[in-house]
Amino acid sequence: MQQTAAGISGEARSSEAGLIDRARARDEAALRLIMQANNRRLYRLARGILRSDSEAEDVVQETYVRAFTHLDGFRGESGLSTWLSRIAINEALGRARGRRPHVELGALPEATLNAEIIQFPLSSASGDPEKSMAQREIQRVVEHAVDELPEAFRMVFIARVMEGMNVEETAELLGVKPETVKTRLHRARTMLRENVEKKIGPVMMDAFPFAGQRCERLTQTVLRRLGLGI
Q: Domain RNA polymerase sigma factor 70 region 4 type spans what residues (predicted)?
Protein backbone atom coordinates (compact mmCIF):
# COMPACT_ATOMS: atom_id res chain seq x y z
CA MET A 1 0.00 0.00 0.00
CA GLN A 2 2.89 2.36 0.68
CA GLN A 3 4.69 1.87 -2.64
CA THR A 4 4.23 3.15 -6.16
CA ALA A 5 3.01 0.82 -8.87
CA ALA A 6 6.51 0.73 -10.39
CA GLY A 7 8.03 -0.36 -7.11
CA ILE A 8 5.80 -3.27 -6.18
CA SER A 9 5.94 -6.86 -7.30
CA GLY A 10 3.49 -8.42 -9.74
CA GLU A 11 1.97 -10.41 -6.89
CA ALA A 12 1.45 -7.28 -4.78
CA ARG A 13 0.02 -5.42 -7.78
CA SER A 14 -2.40 -8.27 -8.39
CA SER A 15 -3.40 -8.28 -4.73
CA GLU A 16 -4.02 -4.54 -4.80
CA ALA A 17 -6.04 -4.84 -8.00
CA GLY A 18 -8.21 -7.48 -6.35
CA LEU A 19 -8.70 -5.26 -3.32
CA ILE A 20 -9.73 -2.36 -5.55
CA ASP A 21 -12.20 -4.56 -7.45
CA ARG A 22 -13.78 -5.56 -4.16
CA ALA A 23 -13.91 -1.91 -3.06
CA ARG A 24 -15.64 -0.97 -6.32
CA ALA A 25 -18.28 -3.55 -5.41
CA ARG A 26 -18.63 -1.82 -1.98
CA ASP A 27 -17.13 -4.78 -0.12
CA GLU A 28 -16.95 -3.48 3.45
CA ALA A 29 -13.90 -5.55 4.39
CA ALA A 30 -11.97 -4.19 1.40
CA LEU A 31 -12.93 -0.62 2.26
CA ARG A 32 -11.77 -1.16 5.82
CA LEU A 33 -8.43 -2.56 4.68
CA ILE A 34 -7.81 0.39 2.38
CA MET A 35 -8.63 2.92 5.08
CA GLN A 36 -6.62 1.19 7.78
CA ALA A 37 -3.60 1.00 5.47
CA ASN A 38 -3.74 4.69 4.52
CA ASN A 39 -5.22 6.55 7.50
CA ARG A 40 -1.93 7.65 9.01
CA ARG A 41 -0.29 8.78 5.78
CA LEU A 42 -3.29 10.78 4.61
CA TYR A 43 -3.70 12.39 8.01
CA ARG A 44 -0.07 13.44 8.20
CA LEU A 45 -0.02 14.84 4.68
CA ALA A 46 -3.22 16.79 5.26
CA ARG A 47 -2.04 18.07 8.60
CA GLY A 48 1.25 19.09 7.04
CA ILE A 49 -0.68 21.53 4.87
CA LEU A 50 -3.42 22.64 7.27
CA ARG A 51 -1.61 22.35 10.63
CA SER A 52 -4.93 21.52 12.28
CA ASP A 53 -5.83 18.11 13.74
CA SER A 54 -9.57 18.47 13.20
CA GLU A 55 -9.25 19.87 9.67
CA ALA A 56 -6.83 17.09 8.76
CA GLU A 57 -9.29 14.45 9.95
CA ASP A 58 -12.01 16.10 7.87
CA VAL A 59 -9.72 15.95 4.84
CA VAL A 60 -9.03 12.25 5.39
CA GLN A 61 -12.74 11.56 5.52
CA GLU A 62 -13.49 13.61 2.41
CA THR A 63 -10.61 11.92 0.61
CA TYR A 64 -12.08 8.48 1.15
CA VAL A 65 -15.55 9.60 0.11
CA ARG A 66 -14.21 11.15 -3.06
CA ALA A 67 -11.98 8.16 -3.84
CA PHE A 68 -14.59 5.49 -3.15
CA THR A 69 -17.16 7.26 -5.29
CA HIS A 70 -14.69 7.60 -8.16
CA LEU A 71 -12.83 4.28 -8.08
CA ASP A 72 -13.75 3.72 -11.71
CA GLY A 73 -11.43 6.61 -12.48
CA PHE A 74 -8.43 4.90 -10.89
CA ARG A 75 -6.25 3.64 -13.74
CA GLY A 76 -3.45 2.06 -11.73
CA GLU A 77 -0.78 4.32 -13.22
CA SER A 78 0.47 4.81 -9.69
CA GLY A 79 -0.19 2.88 -6.50
CA LEU A 80 -3.51 3.27 -4.74
CA SER A 81 -1.78 4.90 -1.78
CA THR A 82 -0.19 7.51 -4.04
CA TRP A 83 -3.54 8.19 -5.72
CA LEU A 84 -5.25 8.63 -2.35
CA SER A 85 -2.41 10.86 -1.16
CA ARG A 86 -2.80 13.16 -4.15
CA ILE A 87 -6.52 13.48 -3.48
CA ALA A 88 -5.81 14.32 0.17
CA ILE A 89 -3.19 16.91 -0.78
CA ASN A 90 -5.52 18.57 -3.27
CA GLU A 91 -8.37 18.57 -0.76
CA ALA A 92 -6.13 20.08 1.92
CA LEU A 93 -4.73 22.70 -0.45
CA GLY A 94 -8.26 23.64 -1.46
CA ARG A 95 -9.21 24.19 2.16
CA ALA A 96 -6.03 26.14 2.81
CA ARG A 97 -6.90 28.47 -0.06
CA GLY A 98 -10.35 29.07 1.33
CA ARG A 99 -12.32 27.01 -1.15
CA ARG A 100 -13.96 23.69 -0.38
CA PRO A 101 -13.94 21.32 -3.36
CA HIS A 102 -17.22 19.67 -4.23
CA VAL A 103 -17.34 16.08 -2.99
CA GLU A 104 -20.05 13.54 -3.77
CA LEU A 105 -21.29 12.22 -0.47
CA GLY A 106 -24.05 9.81 -1.35
CA ALA A 107 -22.31 6.57 -2.22
CA LEU A 108 -21.28 5.36 1.24
CA PRO A 109 -23.04 5.60 4.59
CA GLU A 110 -21.41 8.40 6.56
CA ALA A 111 -21.41 6.33 9.73
CA THR A 112 -19.35 3.61 8.01
CA LEU A 113 -16.64 6.11 7.13
CA ASN A 114 -16.70 7.82 10.50
CA ALA A 115 -16.14 4.53 12.27
CA GLU A 116 -12.94 3.88 10.34
CA ILE A 117 -11.19 7.21 10.76
CA ILE A 118 -8.41 6.75 13.29
CA GLN A 119 -8.23 9.59 15.77
CA PHE A 120 -4.77 11.15 15.87
CA PRO A 121 -2.43 11.51 17.54
CA LEU A 122 -2.69 8.14 19.23
CA SER A 123 -1.44 8.22 22.79
CA SER A 124 -0.18 5.08 24.46
CA ALA A 125 -1.32 4.26 27.93
CA SER A 126 1.28 4.68 30.63
CA GLY A 127 1.30 3.90 34.31
CA ASP A 128 3.61 6.86 34.96
CA PRO A 129 1.70 10.13 34.53
CA GLU A 130 4.85 12.24 35.07
CA LYS A 131 6.74 10.42 32.34
CA SER A 132 3.73 10.65 30.05
CA MET A 133 3.49 14.38 30.67
CA ALA A 134 7.16 14.90 29.85
CA GLN A 135 6.84 12.81 26.69
CA ARG A 136 3.76 14.77 25.60
CA GLU A 137 5.57 18.04 26.16
CA ILE A 138 8.54 16.98 24.04
CA GLN A 139 6.16 15.66 21.38
CA ARG A 140 4.40 19.01 21.41
CA VAL A 141 7.70 20.85 20.91
CA VAL A 142 8.61 18.61 17.97
CA GLU A 143 5.16 18.92 16.39
CA HIS A 144 5.26 22.70 16.67
CA ALA A 145 8.75 22.77 15.17
CA VAL A 146 7.52 20.71 12.22
CA ASP A 147 4.49 23.00 11.87
CA GLU A 148 6.80 26.02 11.63
CA LEU A 149 8.70 24.64 8.64
CA PRO A 150 7.76 26.35 5.35
CA GLU A 151 5.20 24.21 3.54
CA ALA A 152 7.52 23.02 0.76
CA PHE A 153 10.05 21.72 3.28
CA ARG A 154 7.40 20.47 5.69
CA MET A 155 5.75 18.26 3.09
CA VAL A 156 9.05 16.70 2.02
CA PHE A 157 9.97 16.05 5.67
CA ILE A 158 6.63 14.41 6.42
CA ALA A 159 6.77 12.22 3.32
CA ARG A 160 10.41 11.17 3.62
CA VAL A 161 11.01 11.00 7.38
CA MET A 162 7.63 10.53 9.02
CA GLU A 163 6.12 8.27 6.35
CA GLY A 164 9.33 6.64 5.15
CA MET A 165 8.62 7.25 1.46
CA ASN A 166 11.62 7.03 -0.87
CA VAL A 167 12.97 9.92 -2.92
CA GLU A 168 11.29 8.88 -6.16
CA GLU A 169 7.88 8.33 -4.57
CA THR A 170 8.08 11.64 -2.74
CA ALA A 171 9.04 13.43 -5.95
CA GLU A 172 6.13 11.81 -7.80
CA LEU A 173 3.67 12.65 -5.05
CA LEU A 174 4.69 16.30 -4.72
CA GLY A 175 5.37 16.90 -8.39
CA VAL A 176 9.02 17.90 -8.01
CA LYS A 177 12.39 16.52 -9.14
CA PRO A 178 14.20 13.95 -6.98
CA GLU A 179 17.08 16.41 -6.58
CA THR A 180 14.62 18.94 -5.17
CA VAL A 181 13.40 16.37 -2.65
CA LYS A 182 16.97 15.77 -1.44
CA THR A 183 17.73 19.48 -1.16
CA ARG A 184 14.51 20.29 0.66
CA LEU A 185 14.91 17.39 3.07
CA HIS A 186 18.42 18.52 4.00
CA ARG A 187 17.21 22.06 4.59
CA ALA A 188 14.14 20.85 6.52
CA ARG A 189 16.31 18.80 8.87
CA THR A 190 18.58 21.76 9.48
CA MET A 191 15.68 24.11 10.24
CA LEU A 192 13.94 21.52 12.40
CA ARG A 193 17.05 20.88 14.45
CA GLU A 194 17.52 24.61 15.01
CA ASN A 195 13.86 25.07 16.00
CA VAL A 196 13.86 22.14 18.41
CA GLU A 197 17.16 23.11 20.04
CA LYS A 198 15.86 26.66 20.51
CA LYS A 199 12.69 25.44 22.23
CA ILE A 200 13.82 22.34 24.02
CA GLY A 201 15.86 24.15 26.70
CA PRO A 202 12.89 25.35 28.78
CA VAL A 203 11.22 21.96 28.37
CA MET A 204 14.31 20.07 29.52
CA MET A 205 14.27 22.00 32.79
CA ASP A 206 11.40 19.71 33.77
CA ALA A 207 12.94 16.52 32.36
CA PHE A 208 13.45 13.44 34.53
CA PRO A 209 10.73 14.46 37.00
CA PHE A 210 10.70 12.93 40.43
CA ALA A 211 7.54 14.22 41.98
CA GLY A 212 4.04 12.96 42.58
CA GLN A 213 3.70 9.22 43.19
CA ARG A 214 7.39 8.46 42.70
CA CYS A 215 8.44 11.08 45.23
CA GLU A 216 5.82 9.95 47.74
CA ARG A 217 6.72 6.28 47.30
CA LEU A 218 10.42 6.88 47.92
CA THR A 219 9.69 9.14 50.90
CA GLN A 220 7.47 6.52 52.53
CA THR A 221 10.02 3.79 51.89
CA VAL A 222 12.81 5.78 53.57
CA LEU A 223 10.58 6.63 56.53
CA ARG A 224 9.67 2.97 56.98
CA ARG A 225 13.30 1.95 56.91
CA LEU A 226 13.96 4.53 59.62
CA GLY A 227 11.10 3.13 61.67
CA LEU A 228 9.04 6.24 61.20
CA GLY A 229 6.64 5.27 58.46
CA ILE A 230 3.05 4.26 59.09
A: 141-192
The CA dihedral of 111, 113, 115, 121, to the nearest 10 degrees, is -140
Residue whose C-alpha is closest to residue 34's, from 7, 63, 8, 5: 63
| Rounded Cα gap, residues 111 and 97, in angstroms | 28
Burial class of residue 71 (count of CB atoms within 10 Å of its CB; 0-12, 13-18, 19+) = middle
**Percent of the chain surpassing pLDDT 70:** 72
Nearest to 195 by CA among 141, 157, 159: 141
The Cα–Cα gap between 86 and 101 comes to: 14
Q: Let me know how many helices (H) and strands (E) the chain has, helices first.
A: 10, 0
Domain annotation for the chain: domains and CATH numbers: 10-101 (1.10.1740.10), 131-208 (1.10.10.10)
